[in-house]
Design a protein that fits this description.
The protein is of the alpha+beta class. The chain has one helix at 20-31; strands spanning 11-15, 35-39.
Length: 43
């Protein structure tokens, strides 16, 4: 699957990324080439 956006060289911080929409967004950003940091309340 090709990425719609090229986020190579970009950094993204996703809060609430331990599940649901946050996790989906984090995966999408990573697939687009971003370096992703994910933060959530539960380990």
């Amino acid at each position: 699957m090709s990425a719609r956006f090229d986020l190579s060289g970009r950094v993204a911080l996703v809060t609430g990324g331990n599940g649901g929409i946050g996790l989906g967004i984090a995966k999408g950003l990573a697939e687009a080439g971003a370096a992703v940091a994910v933060v959530g309340r539960d380990p």
